[in-house]
């Protein structure tokens, strides 16, 4: 039933604002006009606004801002990423679903989307706050033919894609904090978590988790992160279309990951540095076994942060929390 309803929505969306008669739809779908009408009612219940034009038929006026595959794939410009979408209304974590799908052989480019997560996670088993319907909680499965040492840069490449997408859909100018935070006015609006399935043959799958705060108000966040988190709506003052954001993000993700795989990190490194808040500034890098203070001088071709301490020594930082 869902599929006929979805096909009907697709048919109406693709008629580009032209009304399509109940009779014509009934013929095309091989069902009665009453059945068509029932599917129209079902779409209206899902939040689609459909105009019924006398003697002419049905016309879609607006579609709801859900992350359902149909909504995302209508108007999606990618060839690869997002052609296969797994959507669930709620889950523990899209990372868990994506890991399972990857193990079961899901193709590269598969995307998992949800409205809310009960156990969204950050790095080192930290909690990721995932308010229902207010953000984009997504995992992307990639199967790049690269050595495992090249995996960490996918976080940086993804960060560039996120910045480009936010710039395209809003007027905001996000900044990147090494390695995986996207900031607006110094507050975090996006976190990225890259996980790896690999064996003796190399990378089997990369699972790139992206959590984007879109339409939250301050009080939608857990009290303990209200001072450090923000959303696109809080910064721009406007409600932002999650659909458009996902479509744009998948597009840039496809372009930039392909560029990285085929041409290496060079150009992306330049883009990344231009968006970075970290480079050129004094920072404190907290690692599991030590904390270093100094100037962040840049990143290497491998995505390693170069930190110069007061004694003049240059340190390569592979993983840390950065304070500025
Ligand atoms: C991250 O970790 O920033 C990676 C977040 C990845 C989340 C996505 S959502 C889809 C996919 N499924 C998952 O289960 N995860 C991925 P980290 O750098 O460790 O930052 C975690 C810290 O960010 C927390 O300890 C909080 O301080 C803060 N935080 C938690 N939720 C936040 C939110 N919604 N917005 C901003 N900051 C948040």
From TrEMBL:
- What residue stretch is flagged as signal peptide? none
Q: Its Enzyme Commission number?
A: 6.3.4.15
Please name the GO terms that the record assigns under molecular function. Answer: biotin--[biotin carboxyl-carrier protein] ligase activity
Ranges for the BPL/LPL catalytic domain?
69-261
Residues binding biotin are 117, 121-123, 188
Q: Does the keyword Nucleus apply?
A: no
Top EC class per UniProt?
ligase
Q: Which InterPro entries match?
A: aa-tRNA-synth_II/BPL/LPL, ArsR-like_HTH, Bifunct_BirA, Biotin_CoA_COase_ligase, BPL_C, BPL_LPL_catalytic, HTH_11, Transcriptional_repressor_C
Q: Which residues bind DNA?
A: 22-41
The reactions it catalyses are: biotin + L-lysyl-[protein] + ATP = N(6)-biotinyl-L-lysyl-[protein] + AMP + diphosphate + H(+)
Family to which this protein belongs: Belongs to the biotin--protein ligase family.
NCBIfam families xref list: birA_ligase
The free-text function statement in the UniProt record for this protein reads: Acts both as a biotin--[acetyl-CoA-carboxylase] ligase and a repressor.
This protein's name: Bifunctional ligase/repressor BirA
This protein's species is Planococcus wigleyi
């Amino acid at each position: 039933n869902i599929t006929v309803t979805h096909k009907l929505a697709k048919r109406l969306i693709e008629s580009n604002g032209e009304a399509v008669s109940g009779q014509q739809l009934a013929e095309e779908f091989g069902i009665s006009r009453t059945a068509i009408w029932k599917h129209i009612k079902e779409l209206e219940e899902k939040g689609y606004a459909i105009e019924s034009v006398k003697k002419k038929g049905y016309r879609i006026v607006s579609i709801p801002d859900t992350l359902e595959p149909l909504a995302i794939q209508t108007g999606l410009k990618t060839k690869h990423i997002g052609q296969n979408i797994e959507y669930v209304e709620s889950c523990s974590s899209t990372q868990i679903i994506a890991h399972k799908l990857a193990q079961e052989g899901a193709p590269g480019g598969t995307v998992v989307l949800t409205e809310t997560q009960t156990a969204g996670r950050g790095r080192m088993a930290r909690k990721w706050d995932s308010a229902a319907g207010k953000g984009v909680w997504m995992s992307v499965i990639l199967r790049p033919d690269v050595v495992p040492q090249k995996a960490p840069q996918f976080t940086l490449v993804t960060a560039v894609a996120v910045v480009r997408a936010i710039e395209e859909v809003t007027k905001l100018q996000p900044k990147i904090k090494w390695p995986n935070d996207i900031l607006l006015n110094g507050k975090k609006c996006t976190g990225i978590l890259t996980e790896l399935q690999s064996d003796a043959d190399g990378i089997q799958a990369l699972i790139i988790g992206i959590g984007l705060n879109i339409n939250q108000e301050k009080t939608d966040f857990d009290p303990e992160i209200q001072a450090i988190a923000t959303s696109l709506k809080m910064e721009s003052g406007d409600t932002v279309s999650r659909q458009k954001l996902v479509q744009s993000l998948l597009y840039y993700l496809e372009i930039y990951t392909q560029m990285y795989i085929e041409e290496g990190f060079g150009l992306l490194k330049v883009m990344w540095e231009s968006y970075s808040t970290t480079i050129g500034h004094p920072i404190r890098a907290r690692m599991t076994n030590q904390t270093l203070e100094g100037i962040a001088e840049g990143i290497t071709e491998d995505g390693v942060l170069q930190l110069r301490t007061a004694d003049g020594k240059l340190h390569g930082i592979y993983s840390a929390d950065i304070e500025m």
